[in-house]
Amino acid sequence: MIIQPRTRGFICLTAHPDGALQSVKNQIEYVKSKGELKNGPKKVLVIGASTGFGLSSRIEAAFGSGAATIGVFFEKPASEGKIGTAGWYNSAAFEKEAATAGLYAKSINGDAFSDEVKKETIELIKKDLGQVDLVVYSLASPRRTHPKTGVAYASVLKPIGEPFTNKTVDFHTGVVSDISIQPVDKDEDIENTIAVMGGEDWKFWMEDLKNAGVLADGVKTVAYSYIGPELTFPIYRNGTIGQAKNDLEATVPVLNDLLKDLNGTSYVSVNKALVTQSSSAIPVVPLYISLLYKVMKAKGTHEGTIEQMERLFSERLYTADGVVPLDDAGRIRIDDWEMAADVQAEVAKQWNQVTTENLADISDIEGYRKDFFNLFGFEIDGIDYEKDANENVKVPSIAE
User: Fold this and answer.
1) Is 236 among the residues known to form the active site?
2) Per-domain residue ranges for the chain?
3) For the whole model, what pTM was predicted?
4) Is 75 annotated among the ligand-binding residues?
5) 245 assigned binding-site residue
6) 368 is in an annotated binding site
7) Which residues make up the annotated site Plays an important role in discriminating NADH against NADPH (predicted)?
8) How far apart are CA 151 and CA 145, in angstroms?
9) Is residue 112 a known part of a binding site?
């Protein structure tokens, strides 16, 4: 069928398999261009492996250091006459390219919060890999059913304490406007958001993996976070999501204790602001990213998810001397180029000036739009979107 993008707000309802394949190939070529990561991981589990930082982590591990990878995700499969999700096509593309390169790659599609998927993953590790030496935790979900209690939680995106008013942009139309968001009116909303996006599930995964004996000596585990500039603090770092991120970061010492007898370590990596399915949903953030892109591209410091993950692996997690550089709070910072004083000063200056009329001149709103559609396999260079595409693409390792 001919597949074109159909959008509803910050969601694209369609995805293109050929575009996804080319996008994955582009990331692989970037990793290969950086050379072999000689002391990198060899057996890797990526939880949340189908899009964004999780997908790029899997690509970096596989094609940067030749790692065998298992990816866990929750995506809608493709079938005859029915388009799969972008993450499904990404995962199919990854497995295809891994097989061509002679790399082990298998995937599990299901609710990663559930005990059933954890058990299935452990059984696969035992059967095929024995143990893993890196666990990447990159889940992004608005809802979670607690595996022990069965209680369903939904996260909310709200400030805490005071209403928040600031600029935002509709990246489809380019209209800059003010938006006001009311604060949470009950502590339960904060608790629910922490339950979905905090560190508890990461801890559950690591406990189950350790108890099953599938973590190698010297194992590392990393989860992803974001801080951002002060202008986004009310809706992000000081809001409900920020409370969940605080909980995620507070899980690090707990996991370090858990992994001590394995000589293992856990980390939270604070990553750069990028166009993802999650970030597109946060008011204010698309406008900030559009301005940030313009500034960082002009300085030659702009990165996408694959550039970020290559730098995380080669310059943080797997350094030549084995030392992982951390900030004063014990976090890895690969948002360092974004948060550079000169970058933030320029973004703040443009933020005060930006309007609908000058948006195209002082921001990279077109770059934002392109990155958004790229997430779903559209607007990828070299793809003819007027040609029929085979929508019924399989992920080889997943049984029908």
Assistant:
1) yes
2) 7-374
3) 0.97
4) yes
5) yes
6) no
7) 75
8) 6
9) yes
Question: Which class is 7-374 in CATH?
Answer: alpha beta
Contact at 8 Å (CB) between 20 and 377? yes
Helices (H), strands (E): how many in the chain?
12, 13
Model pLDDT for residues 212-239, shown as the tens digit of each residue: 999 999 999 999 999 999 999 998 899 9
- Residue 246's alpha-carbon distances to 112, 165, 394, in angstroms, are 21, 23, 38
User: What's the chain's Rg over C-alpha atoms?
Assistant: 20
The span from the CA of 238 to the CA of 334, in Å, is: 20
Q: Are 47 and 62 in contact (CB under 8 A)?
A: no
Q: Which two tokens stand for residue 274?
A: 């990028």
d(CA 16, CA 3) in angstroms, rounded, equals 6
Q: Rounded CA gap, 136 and 274, in Å? A: 19
Residue type present at position 52: G
Closest CA to 209 of 335, 125, 289, 144: 125
The alpha carbon torsion through 113, 114, 115, 119 (nearest 10 deg) reads -90
Q: What is the pLDDT of residue 38?
A: 87
- How many residues are given for the chain? 400
In the predicted model, what is the mean pLDDT of the chain?
95
Which contiguous run of DSSP H or E holds residue 294? helix 285-299
Q: What are the tens digits of pLDDT across the range 238-277?
A: 999 999 999 999 999 999 999 999 999 999 999 999 998 7
At 316-346, the pLDDT tens digits run 999 999 999 999 999 999 999 999 999 999 9
61 marked ligand binding residue: no
Catalytic residue among 236, 267, 288, 368: 236
How far is residue 349 from each of residues 223, 352, 383, 387, measured CA to CA in Å?
A: 32, 6, 38, 44
Residue 8: pLDDT above 90? no
Q: Which residues pair with 265 in a beta bridge?
A: 220
* Residues 37-92: tens digit of each pLDDT: 989 999 999 999 999 999 999 999 999 999 999 999 999 999 999 999 999 999 99
